[in-house]
Amino acid sequence: MDLRTTYLGLELAHPIVASASPLCADLDGIMRLADAGAAAVVLSSIFEEQIVAQELAEAAMTEMGTDSQPEAAGYWPPDAGSNVLDGRLEILRRAVERAGVPIIASLNGCSASGWVDFARKLEQAGASAIELNIYRVPADPAESGASVEAAALEILRRVKAAVGVPVSVKMAPFFSAPGHMAAQFAEAGADGLVLFNRFYGPDVDLAALTARDDLHLSNPYDIRLPLMWVGLLSRRIPTSIAASTGVWSGADVVKYLLAGADAVMTTSALLRHGPAYLGTLLGELRGWMQRRGHESVAAFKGQLAAGGQPDEAAQFLRAQYRTILTTYDAQSASRL
Ligand SMILES: Cc1cc2nc3c(=O)[nH]c(=O)nc-3n(C[C@H](O)[C@H](O)[C@H](O)COP(=O)(O)O)c2cc1C
């Protein structure tokens, strides 16, 4: 059975990729994922704020030296430049050497400033590709959608200018026209899109009367929004597409592949069940293919992707929306 797929120009043994999470933050976790069969591993993100803080610290140290005496540099400990980021680069280097599967580095930020040049260091450390997570809440009501889009595209262009390896964008679903935004990312040089990034809104702590940060893992129902967009875009956008969010079973993997995803990412299920759960997902994918008589992933990938005119898809989805709302059996809710 041939499970191979190509994502970002990378040949993957099968489509299931471990997406960014604390499991991919250190060498031990990355190796556990690779040994458990992940086709590729996306490292946990390096954040814009970490890079900027490091640059400021280095600048302050340099200034401190020049303000005192020229010999001051000689007093700095030899590892004065080493830091968290050097540690992350070292993990990346060693993962590339040992994991035997493509290692995708993740950069996470929100502005098009100098920090994006850090992508070059990730490339030099051996990353097979860069995943760019642009996480920004446009909280200013004076800021237009066009300006939000332009800012995101500029970040991508700068990262693309810094590296030669493929770059994917882990997109938010909240653009007013996600399809058009996906097309713009493609035009600006994205080699792939990850649909979608997951947003974590704050809750309210009623005892302390403050905003409360907590994180809930996804659930299988969360597959619906990205599944729709993977299906709508996979034939229309000329980049690789990775589906992300809500993959808890082999059936979810199959659904995303039928919609046209080139790779299918999972985090929550691996956090809950451990890296070995990759074997379960793969076994279920194989089982489904066997039952359906598919010899390869290529034989069914994209079978349910939207083709034809975009208008037809919009009309279909509108009709489906109406049907869902108007045929709902209200009695069934009380039986839950
Ligand atoms: C604890 C935790 C940490 C995460 N860290 C990152 C990260 O560093 N960078 C990133 O792009 N996404 C991160 N994510 C998001 C996941 O990569 C993924 O997009 C999200 O969990 C949805 O996929 P899932 O439904 O398979 O969990 C994190 C998710 C969790 C639960």
TrEMBL record:
Keyword hit for Membrane: no
UniProt keyword annotation of Magnesium present: no
One Pfam family from the record: DHO_dh
One cellular component term from this protein's GO annotations in UniProt: cytoplasm
Highest taxon of source: Bacteria
Molecular-function annotations in GO: dihydroorotate dehydrogenase activity
Pathway: Pyrimidine metabolism; UMP biosynthesis via de novo pathway
GO BP, sorted A to Z: 'de novo' pyrimidine nucleobase biosynthetic process; 'de novo' UMP biosynthetic process
Limits of the Dihydroorotate dehydrogenase catalytic domain: 80-286
Keywords: Flavoprotein, FMN, Oxidoreductase, Pyrimidine biosynthesis
Cofactors, names only: FMN
The protein's name in its UniProt record: Dihydroorotate dehydrogenase-like protein
Organism whose genome encodes this protein: Gluconacetobacter dulcium
